[in-house]
């Protein structure tokens, strides 16, 4: 099937402006993504990239930076002698620019026009802001003042997270950017939406006759979403201490995953139809209004000294650039309700934290048990069916069902069917940033967050943060390397549930593992 947006991109090309080209994100994610897209023929020869940051880089230095970034982080192996590298790197230039210096944008405009001539690009411009958020509005405004939005093609603004610090600041930022770019020109990144298995949630749900009919409160007991990390705050203590887990992961990635799990099937596969459905979920999300609601449904924690895989680790308050008496949460967990017809009464448990025992992103759907049945109950206590989306680092789906134990006693045991996608097609699937960069270049906005989504996400988070700011006694300390505050386990226990084990079940459960033989 031909993709007209892709054809248009290939025919007309684009200049990509990477603000923050000397930064961590550009090095680890963006430049490798450009290379993979080029290698796969997804970038036309009609493209150019201008790297922008304050520090001076000669053409040769910038080339060396690119080579280092790609050899270290790209999913394709690269050698400086490769012919493809020589062709690829010709499309890149670097310009030193302080984003506040309006005069500098004139030079940028000249550089852009020169590259458009050189590569026969028809005026399309994509501005990627891999910058600290406080610089976003300034760049947008200066692009306008500098005449960069007056080309003959489209203009698109790709913005990194976080989009604001709370609803008020997000609204202000949105107003400022909105004075320059139209909503359909703004692509707000939530890189979880670029992940293979997050995108696969829709397909698994809507393309399978044995899931969609069961996808409601009649059959689903609860949904559990875990985004656990083994890392601490690394070099980002300064940012993180003002943000905390709820703003860093909760407001964006976690709520977006809730929307993917809970949304109604869209009437059409247009970006706006899909995003409309996600917005409806966010509107139905029960707000924890009072401090009491927050205490009853939300858990926060902070890691202390501990041991992870045999290594002693310092507590959060001893990390670089973190206040020694910080009450910032490094763990956020909550019980959510989506108050609509489909989900009434089904708890969604979400949790994320730093310095937990494993790096993983998983979504577990726990189905309700079969009604008590004399025939079956005699043989064993039935386990609930589970459907598990493994998002990261393993990608795949895991289903747990009840079956007869081989032998003559007719006992029932849980067995697992495990489809490991990353094991089957290898680990070389496109990285989230690669997909998102490609989508932005084609003008495909499905997996970017629209303003109404962002604002509703802040509305939910703000109430919790307000309640927390009044009293920090509910900050639970947890040792690095543990699964976080026990208060979160208690919250599930109140409802008669528990967290299902992450990354696979007990060995004895797994009788048949498809794709991992
Ligand atoms: N790194 C990551 O993995 C992730 C990052 N993000 C987001 O991406 C954005 C960038 O993050 P990251 O790359 O880590 O940040 P870095 O601090 O590593 O990089 C910041 C970049 O901004 C440039 N810069 C700073 N001030 C100016 C200025 N006045 N004018 C022009 N350029 C300037 C810096 O270059 P110079 O000093 O030379 O000017 C540098 O290239 C942030 O919004 C972050 O939240 C989101 C998810 C993951
Ligand atoms: O956005 C962020 O995400 C990363 C985790 O991303 P993942 O793709 O590795 O799961 C997190 O470490 C970081 O704090 C946060 O800003």
From TrEMBL:
EC number: 1.1.1.49
Alphabetic keyword roster: Oxidoreductase
Superkingdom: Bacteria
Official protein name in the record: Glucose-6-phosphate dehydrogenase
Name of the gene: zwf
């Amino acid at each position: 099937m031909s993709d007209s947006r892709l054809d248009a991109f290939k025919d007309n090309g684009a200049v990509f402006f990477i603000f923050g080209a000397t930064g961590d994100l550009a090095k680890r994610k963006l430049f490798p993504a450009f290379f993979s897209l080029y290698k796969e023929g997804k970038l036309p020869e009609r493209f150019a990239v201008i790297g922008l940051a304050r520090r001076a880089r000669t053409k040769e230095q910038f080339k060396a930076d690119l080579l280092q970034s790609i050899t270290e982080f790209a999913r394709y192996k690269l050698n400086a002698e490769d012919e493809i590298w020589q062709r690829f790197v010709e499309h890149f230039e670097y310009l030193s620019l302080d984003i506040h210096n309006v005069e500098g944008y004139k030079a940028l405009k000249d550089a852009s026009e020169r590259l458009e001539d050189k590569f026969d690009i028809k005026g399309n411009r994509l501005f990627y802001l891999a910058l600290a958020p406080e610089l976003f509005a300034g760049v947008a405004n200066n692009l306008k003042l500098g005449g960069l939005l007056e080309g003959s093609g489209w203009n698109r603004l790709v913005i990194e997270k976080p989009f604001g610090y709370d609803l008020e600041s997000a609204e202000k930022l949105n107003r400022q950017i909105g004075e320059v770019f139209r909503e359909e020109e703004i692509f707000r990144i939530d890189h979880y939406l670029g992940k293979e298995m997050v995108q696969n949630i829709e397909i698994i749900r809507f393309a399978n006759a044995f899931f969609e009919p069961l996808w409601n409160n009649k059959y689903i007991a609860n949904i559990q979403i875990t985004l656990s990390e083994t890392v601490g705050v690394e070099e980002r203590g300064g940012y993180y201490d003002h943000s905390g887990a709820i703003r860093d992961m909760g407001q964006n990635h976690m709520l977006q995953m809730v929307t993917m799990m809970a949304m109604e099937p869209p009437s059409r596969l247009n970006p706006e139809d899909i995003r409309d459905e996600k917005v409806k979920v966010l509107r139905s999300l029960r707000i924890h209004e009072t401090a009491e609601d927050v205490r009853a449904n939300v858990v926060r924690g902070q890691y202390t000294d501990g041991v992870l895989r045999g290594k002693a680790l310092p507590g959060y308050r001893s990390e670089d650039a973190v206040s020694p008496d910080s009450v910032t949460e490094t763990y956020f967990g909550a019980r959510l309700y989506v108050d609509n017809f489909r989900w009434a009464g089904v708890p969604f448990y979400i949790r994320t934290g730093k310095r937990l025992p494993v790096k993983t992103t998983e979504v577990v759907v726990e189905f309700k048990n079969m009604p008590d049945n004399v025939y079956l109950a005699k043989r064993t206590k039935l386990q609930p069916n589970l459907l598990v989306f493994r998002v990261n680092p393993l990608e795949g789906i895991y289903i747990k069902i009840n079956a007869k134990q081989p032998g003559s006693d007719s006992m029932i045991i849980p067995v697992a069917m495990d489809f490991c996608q990353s094991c089957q097609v290898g680990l070389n699937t496109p990285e989230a940033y690669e997909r998102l960069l490609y989508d932005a270049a084609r003008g495909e906005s499905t997996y970017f967050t629209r303003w109404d989504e962002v604002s509703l996400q802040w509305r939910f988070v703000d109430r919790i943060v307000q309640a927390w700011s009044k009293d920090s006694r509910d900050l639970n300390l947890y040792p690095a390397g543990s699964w976080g505050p026990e208060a979160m386990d208690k919250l599930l226990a109140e409802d008669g549930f528990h967290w299902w084990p992450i990354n696979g079940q007990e060995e004895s459960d797994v009788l048949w593992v498809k794709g991992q033989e």
